[in-house]
Amino acid sequence: MLIGLDWLQWAVIACLLTLPIIYELNNTFKYYAKFILYYILVMLVGTVVMVYSLFRPRRPENSWLANWLVNHMRCLFGLSIEVRGRENLKYNEAYIIVCNHQSSLDLFAMMEIWPERCVPFAKKELLYCGPLGLALYLVGAVFIDRGNRERAVDAIQKTSDEIRNNKVKVFIFPEGTRNHEGAMLPFKKGAFHLSVNAQVPLVPVVISSYTDFYSKREKKFGTGKFIVTCLPKISTKGLTDEDVPKLSDFIRKQMLDCFNQTSLETTQSKLANH
């Protein structure tokens, strides 16, 4: 019996000693290991924020704790961020942030620039993601049922009233889903209808490509740097729903040009450092 236990102990020790070697030599193993760690930490952050927010639910100010925790968590993954145009988020008024969406790693960029009294638009499914969903609810997130147009329109109308009455800022991914392949997907119009209905400006935010350190298709998740650019606000005063398609196309082109430029910069910088 004791001999069997000795073999079991040695097997566990051998496994623990082998894992770091596999981690360094196998990119697929590293990819999944880092994402498992990432999601565990995100859930831990959600749990802490949830407990803290229970004492004052549905208040945007609760998000400061998530900002602090996530910004420190990013250091574990060897990712650095250069922020440009941060002053464009310092308006003491309500506005809508529209940002491109590449991966769940966008959380790092969001928390790096998160302004005061800001709430996220989130798909309804996230509400049921355990501590994360409850934390989002308690910081005032607006949940959208993408499968029910009437409910989505109703949520936009209610949020328009909230923005006007309480000077709340809203963070939205207008692509509606993650785009792992670079560039940008066509924009959905909800963010732009919201901005026009509330008569508040839009602030485009562009996250440069992650391709130098991350690729879902290639199972790559390394260390690196990306650029977050906060562009000047765009007024919607006097615009109506009829202006939304033109407004959406104009902002998407502006963001896509910025995305291509900053993504090229990060690639050239990495090549220069090597």
Automatic annotation (TrEMBL):
Q: Which CDD domains match?
A: LPLAT_AGPAT-like
Q: What class of enzyme is it?
A: transferase
The biological process GO terms on file are: phosphatidic acid biosynthetic process
Domain-related comment = The HXXXXD motif is essential for acyltransferase activity and may constitute the binding site for the phosphate moiety of the glycerol-3-phosphate.
Q: Which organism is it from?
A: Mytilus coruscus
EC assignment: 2.3.1.51
Where are the membrane-spanning stretches?
7-23, 35-55
Q: Which residues form a coiled coil?
A: none
A cellular component term (GO) from this record?
membrane
Give GO terms: molecular function aspect only: 1-acylglycerol-3-phosphate O-acyltransferase activity
The chain positions of domain Phospholipid/glycerol acyltransferase read 95-210
Classification lineage: Eukaryota, Metazoa, Spiralia, Lophotrochozoa, Mollusca
Q: Return the protein name.
A: 1-acyl-sn-glycerol-3-phosphate acyltransferase
